[in-house]
């Protein structure tokens, strides 16, 4: 009885360690490229949006953009940011799909290149730009509405 309990406890501890190891290797795989993608994505998105706002102000004699114009500028900004960071997203996705082999960013980049040359780094660009464009359009509409609300207070 004691041996059975002892063996069960050790087997359970081994399962827990294996699970913890899988979490650290699997769930965190792609963390570095995610961070390296998200920071430039936000920088591109906000830089493009502010540039478009300045261009709009110049073209309209300083008139504030209406929600439809905010939506359009946000969509273009988001699509631009998505297009600019798609290669990093492709590398990150490759790392996550192959987490069991624990690829590095360079290994994943070589694998992507081997799958289709430089064009392979643009896989999913269209859907990603569309999705990010819509997301950013809605975000910037709310962002401007909240900014205007607090500016009037």
List the helices and strands and how they pair.
Blueprint: H1 2-27, H2 31-59, H3 67-97, H4 105-116, H5 125-152
Task: Outline the structure in words.
The protein is mostly helical and 153 residues long. It contains five helices and no strands. Helix 2 runs antiparallel to helix 3 (67-97) and helix 3 crosses helix 4.
> What kind of sheet is the major sheet?
none
What letter string, H or E per element, gives the SSE order? HHHHH
Look at the helices and sheets and give the structural class: mainly alpha
How far apart the termini lie comes to 73 Å
Features:
disordered N terminus, 153 residues, mainly alpha, elongated, single chain, 0% strand
